[in-house]
Design a protein that fits this description.
This protein has four helices and 13 strands. By secondary structure, the chain is α+β, with helices and mostly antiparallel strands. The chain has a six-stranded mixed β-sheet. Keywords: Endonuclease, Hydrolase, Nuclease. It holds the Pfam family Uma2.
């Protein structure tokens, strides 16, 4: 086999394992619990009010900028590069022309923006393996909102599997995203803290 054929076979194996995981999770995980697979490990956390309020404000900013038909998803599985990475981003914006494959779902190549809101039990994933997978997938804009720190971390300019630019903003500041494909300013003044 060639290297390309090996990678395709590995991707198919990962997708099959993820499909099996998510079929099981859909049967056993109760409503209100977010479940995803990060590097082959299942992580589950309850949805908190603070978490949801930040997600809602980010989605609202995207809808205000792009209209109600913007392709924004929350907690929807999408497979990212790496070993068994079936993530359910808190917020993701897809390209306008993105189309959902009936068998595979959304493609990570169509993701333009991801926002993750930190949960105490899974924050290390957002700062670690998920950040690495988003960079490897060339997601142009990755935002982490951390209600425990009261701070947002913005990562842009992915290249060679790493983000080359990182900025930090305290809750209450306006995040200038006009230099990105989002072309908006995100006001964090009403982001609640934990």
């Amino acid at each position: 086999m060639t290297v390309l054929e090996d990678r395709i076979a590995m991707a198919d194996d990962n997708a099959q394992h993820l499909d099996e995981w998510f079929e099981l999770l859909e049967r056993v995980v109760p409503e209100g619990i977010k479940a995803e697979v990060v590097e082959g490990a299942v992580h589950m956390v309850p949805q908190r009010d603070t978490h949801f309020e930040i997600i809602r404000r980010i989605i609202r900013a995207l809808e205000d900028r792009f209209g109600m038909d913007v392709k924004v998803r929350s907690d929807v599985r999408i497979d990212f590069p790496g070993f068994e990475n079936g993530f359910c981003p808190d917020v993701m914006k897809l390209r306008d022309d993105a189309e959902r494959d009936p068998e595979r779902g959304w493609c990570h190549e169509d993701v333009e923006f991801v926002a993750e809101v930190i949960s105490r039990g899974t924050g290390m994933n957002d700062y670690g393996p998920k950040k690495a997978a988003y960079a490897q997938a060339d997601v142009p804009v990755y935002l982490i909102a951390d209600p425990y720190q009261g701070r947002c971390h913005l990562f842009t300019d992915p290249k060679d599997g790493e983000y080359r630019t990182e900025s930090r903003f305290d809750f209450g500041e306006r995040i200038d995203l006009t230099h990105t494909l989002l072309d908006l300013t995100l006001d964090t003044a009403t982001f609640p803290r934990d």
